[in-house]
User: Which sequence fits this backbone?
């Protein structure tokens, strides 16, 4: 008797196991007033799985985020490999009559394009963030339309196996957040307080003037001096990259609180029990159900977008609050008490959020073959005995029966 052929099922019609990535960016210029966020102006969506996306990668422009820039791009068009990050234009260049946004946005756009055009994945040669920074930096230095300027840069490349490599130069940076906890925080690179490492383009004429007349110098590091780290992401991990417009006003714990509120409101995290101190758990199936494609009618409840926007808005609010002392204010008060600094630090803001999604295809066969082993999304307690489960978590109550999340 013939048997039914097997087939692979997974959320979003994925055909390959491994990690894919859902991303969003949010930004606010220093001079932009607080306002209700609007897509295409204050936040933007991106996924590594959006085939034939137009444009193929995400990058910022000055009207959106002032001197701070961001980008996100697949590596060579692969749905399992993505690069993303931020760059913060150094405002001190304005004293020399230079618009620093040209450098930061130019660098971000070139990192995005370099990532997208990368060749070598089929030979096992992935792009590396420090190399992306170097190629983009060399291109900016050689671009006659970018006369001068400088910026910090922080970016990462995430891959099919969940590995993530980062390169951070300056005081932008990132957090890796899991259910209810900050798993990792990057360290800032600074020469002194409020003096970050930075990439710079100093014209020969400006160098000559400084040699003759003296005065302030422009710091200039290279991508080789960036801190490089390697991490292993888990399903549902949230990576938050941001410029110092966020980190000067929000601590890691502040950011965790924002992420926790959004994740619990949207059902992405839940408590193991209904009492204080209960463990925070991931709703695995909810994360796997995140949209694989972005369209003009994409729901504004797209989870990465909600997270990026919430972090951006809270940083904006904190920066304008003259009574709320964030990390920058506390540092000034400790180092320079005579300054009498009080409250937030208004600044440009750029945020990129990336959620790691581990695609797990489930093989199904017919009645004559091996038993069906389908991933269950939800069931009631009365159904539990019908399945062999690797783990079982009772989360919340729905009607008269407890809702049970099942995961293999």
Assistant:
């Amino acid at each position: 008797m013939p048997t039914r052929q097997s087939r692979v099922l997974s959320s979003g019609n994925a055909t390959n196991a491994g990690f894919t990535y859902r991303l969003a960016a949010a930004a606010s210029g220093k001079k932009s007033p607080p306002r209700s966020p609007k897509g295409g102006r204050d936040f933007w969506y991106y996924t590594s799985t959006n085939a034939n996306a137009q444009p193929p990668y995400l990058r910022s422009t000055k009207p959106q985020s002032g001197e701070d820039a961001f980008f996100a791009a697949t590596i060579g068009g692969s749905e399992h490999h993505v690069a993303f990050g931020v760059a913060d234009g150094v405002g001190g260049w304005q004293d020399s009559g230079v618009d620093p946004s040209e450098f930061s946005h130019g660098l971000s756009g070139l990192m995005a394009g370099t990532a997208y055009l990368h060749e070598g994945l089929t030979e096992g040669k992935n792009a590396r963030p420090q190399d992306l920074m170097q190629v983009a930096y060399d291109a900016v230095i050689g671009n006659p339309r970018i006369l001068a300027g400088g910026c910090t840069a922080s970016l990462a490349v995430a891959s099919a196996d969940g590995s993530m490599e980062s390169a951070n130069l300056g005081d932008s940076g990132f957090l890796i957040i899991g259910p209810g906890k900050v798993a990792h925080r990057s360290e800032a690179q600074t020469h002194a307080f409020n003096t970050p490492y930075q990439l710079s383009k100093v014209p020969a004429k400006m160098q000559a003037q400084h040699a003759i007349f003296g005065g302030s110098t422009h710091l200039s590091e290279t991508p080789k001096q960036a801190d490089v780290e390697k991490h292993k992401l888990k399903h549902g991990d949230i990576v938050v990259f941001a410029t110092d417009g966020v980190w000067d006003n929000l601590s890691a714990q502040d950011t965790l609180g924002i992420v926790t509120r959004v994740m619990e409101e949207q059902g992405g995290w839940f408590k193991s029990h209904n009492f204080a101190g209960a463990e925070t758990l991931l709703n695995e199936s909810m994360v796997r159900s995140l949209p694989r494609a972005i369209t003009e009618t994409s729901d504004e409840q797209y989870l990465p977008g909600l997270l990026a926007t919430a972090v951006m808005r809270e940083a904006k609010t904190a920066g304008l609050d003259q009574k709320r002392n964030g990390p920058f204010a506390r540092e000034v008060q400790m180092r320079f008490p005579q300054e009498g600094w009080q409250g937030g630090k208004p600044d440009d803001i750029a945020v990129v959020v990336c959620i790691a999604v581990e695609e797990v295809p489930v093989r199904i066969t017919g009645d004559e073959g091996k038993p069906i082993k389908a991933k269950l999304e939800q069931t009631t307690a009365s159904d539990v005995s019908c399945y062999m489960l690797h783990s079982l978590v009772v989360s919340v109550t729905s009607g008269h029966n407890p809702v049970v999340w099942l995961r293999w």
Remarks:
- The first strand starts at residue 7 and ends at 9.
- The radius of gyration is 23 Å.
- The CA atoms of residues 291 and 299 lie 9 Å apart.
